Amino acid sequence: MHHGSTTVEMPDENSDRLSPWERIRGQFHMRPSEDDEPQSWWIASTAIPLVAATTGPLANVMSIVALVMPWRSKILSTDSAAGTSIQEGYPDPRWDTVLNAVSLFCGIVGNAFLLFNFTQIVRYIIALPVTIILWFIAAGILSGITIATHIYAPPVGIDRVYSQAYWSAVIAAILYFVLSVILMINMLGYFLGKYPQHFALTDEQRTLILQMTALVIWLLIGAAMFQQVLGLSFADALYFSDVTVLTLGYGNIVATSAVGRGLIWPYAVIGIIILGLVVESIFKFAREVHYDNVVRKHIEQKRQSTFERSIAFDEQEERLTSGEVITPPGLTRQKSEPNRHLHQRPIRNTIDAIATARRPRILIMREEKDRFNAMRRIQHDTMRFRRWNNLIISIVAFGIVWSCGAVVFWKLEPMTYFESLYFCFTSLLTIGYGDFTPESNPGKPFFVVWSLIAIPIMTMLISEMSDTVVASFKRATEVFADYLVLPQSRVYKTCFGRIPGVAQFVRSREEKKRKERGFPLEGADESGNRETADPEESGQSNTQREDFAESYPHPSLEELVRDLTPLELAQQLAFAIRRTSKQAREGKRKRYSYEEWVEFTRLIQFTDPRARPSSSQRNEGIPTNDNEDEYGVINWDWIGENSPMLAKQTEPEWVLDRLCESLIRYVSTQEESRAARGDVDLTEEPTLRKERDIGIDE
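-> structure tokens emitted (698 positions)
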């Protein structure tokens, strides 16, 4: 007893002897560049690097404006032909210009190392600290010289003000500092072992970085070009290029010469194309990140909750029925405790359950259908959650950008807060009336940065509204048109068919008409008698007959219970591959019914050479191997972790892959059968191969 207490206290004594630095170091767990451990902190690992990579070029642009223009200017006139006030800059102190150039160099080199990190030219552990340090240096230099200029060399006089270059330096310093801080959060996550030492970005996300860089370069080209053609300052030319590419067209700065107007044509077209690519990539990135880290987590929580409830129900049902089961002669009753562990594994699929159970097959199928329907309800709830959650997030982001931007313009421009809200709203919608525009020196640089961030967010909001609000309005319009504008007979038939007397009357009339056409009264919909009827009498066109020929009458649960011969299954396998390949090519969202899934499952698994029990095994109830085998034949539970309804592929794509694998196995088993009979020699090379062995990529 005494020895046990001593061993318990030893770790506490050792931990008390650790220095604070050793305790802190013990919290760090730096992972290698590639490992199989799960990743967390998805905002730090994915969103933060992408935000830094797309916003870093904007900070470089502001720093360039701060370098190429004087920080102080004298107002000569409040009106010009181009629509701007005429200001003349006067030289800055030499130390100001030198330090400004050093800051720009640090900012550009830091951005370059960040891009090298994304392309894996430089290691993460080297490139990211270099970027953080250089951006901190750039922010510190810009902050220092802006403060020093305000203290030691401010503009003196009523006609002398800080130019747009000075305020661009302030904005660049803020951007460098904020980006450095959030990159430190990314590095902290790596030190804590939340993810490996690389940025977890896809090719599409890397493309977004290049597109944003191209957009910024295009704005700089436009600024340099319109500065010379329109006689503007570099900052005003940058503002004009931004307004042109964003299709705002305020009209406060306009091209007055024929050369300037002619250059706007190609410049605007190319700029709008680049902007469209950037907005599309941002929209895809937001949806992808939200789905991978929010929606899939929501699906998993709902699935796990449903799965746990099903386990609890099965255990309760087992306890209630264990004492009432009558053991058949010659069989021993198994204890309920070992059986309880079976629920912790993925439950076998319907086909295997039918092969091994003593209960009627139709009962097993109906139980599995309940689990299938439960997963379908989870999918439906998740789809609704995804749409409205995306919309809410977009509305919140739009509200933040709108209101915060209005506060800044309210302080920088001669506007009331309501007028600044009005100005920001018309700008976000790219209406651009021009009655309110940024005119002050700090307002224009801020507008360039704000507009490049805000307008893509507005575009995302409109796209999300098309999936929710607009879709609901469209459905309401279609219902209104079906009932009043363009009435459909089927709509009224469905509506009045809910009345018992009317429903019976309509059904009797339909049966009478079908009898007159020569159709049987029952089961005609599922039978093949439609194809034998005269198409002219039934009023079907050639296109309708072709569509019907492509359709496939899916069997009911009662029909699926019947055992089919391998030849019949092989024929159905070919038809199923043709049908699913067409559905996969269409690219539409297709969700199969439970009966279709049971049919596909049977076609997938009947070709497994090791999972096919003998007839004696089926009769005696000997279970078959229900684990995934070497050739990809798997069993799944509809609400389990390996449910096909949780796959990233569409259902037609998933089923088509498995059916093709089944076809390969079927051909291989046929060759083996022929070899066993002596028809062919297969001793040199086995033909039963995995999918990757024959060069098919997933």
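The mean pLDDT is 76.
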